[in-house]
Amino acid sequence: MFDRLEFGGKPFQTVTSEEKLDEVLAWMLRLKNFRQYAEKTIINNVYMDWDMLCKNPQFKRTRSVMDREGIYARVQRYKKRLQPDYGRGLCLETVRCIFTLPEGEAEKYRLTNNGQETYAFIMSNKYILGLFTYCEAARKSVVSDGVEYGHLTGQEQKIVLLDGVGDVLFQALLLDDVEYSGRGLSASLHTIYCLNQKE
């Protein structure tokens, strides 16, 4: 179950060129030079996608490289429509979503794969999309709660509160890089924002 959201030591990266943006998108979608990172668990990732007119965002999982390439093409169309100002920059935000298991539950899912101890969880599409919804709602609640993070700069804190932040170009919850420690699992929620002012 979803527990909390954490802003780590460096949750923000500025993207100041179209080439860098395309590289970040390819990395999140595990395409082009990053296809080697696409293992079986990539089907658990939740990606923002657009309809053909780039008007209505939806969030979904993908089953194939072709599905991810389709999302990449639609994001490229949306990018052209938005015409982001690379002089002001775009911001890649990475927050960790922490999930917990009930006491003793982890042992039921422990297994050994290629000589390494790991965990395997069987989750339905509805359940995974539900986890994404909790993560997205937690991110939005940070704004309404006015949470302050002492380790962030003033400019970064403004981004946390979505002050000076415009459109969301892309968002993804990457469940293919989950980390486990104790009773907690953590996965990265990545969001690319267009900035309304220079950092």
Overview of this structure, please?
- The protein has 199 residues and is α+β, with helices and mostly antiparallel strands.
- Helices cover 29% and strands 33% of the residues.
- The chain has helices at residues 18-29, 65-82, 125-145, 154-160, and strands spanning 2-6, 12-15, 46-50, 57-60, 90-100, 110-113, 116-119, 165-181, 184-195.
Topology:
Blueprint (H helix, E strand, L loop, with lengths): L1 E5 L5 E4 L2 H12 L16 E5 L6 E4 L4 H18 L7 E11 L9 E4 L2 E4 L5 H21 L8 H7 L4 E17 L2 E12 L4
Antiparallel strand pairs: 1-5, 2-5, 3-4, 3-8, 5-9, 6-7, 8-9
Helix pairs in contact: 1-2
Question: Helix segment count?
Answer: 4
Large-scale geometry:
globular
Q: What is the terminal separation in angstroms?
A: 36 Å
Q: Spans of 5+ residues with little confidence (pLDDT < 50)?
A: none
Radius of gyration over C-alpha positions, nearest whole angstrom: 17 Å
What oligomeric arrangement do these chains adopt? single chain
- Please give the share of residues in helix: 25-40%
Mean pLDDT: 88
In what range is the share of β-strand residues? 25-35%
Sketch the topology as an H/E string, one letter per element: EEHEEHEEEHHEE
Content-based structural category: alpha+beta
Total number of beta strands: 9
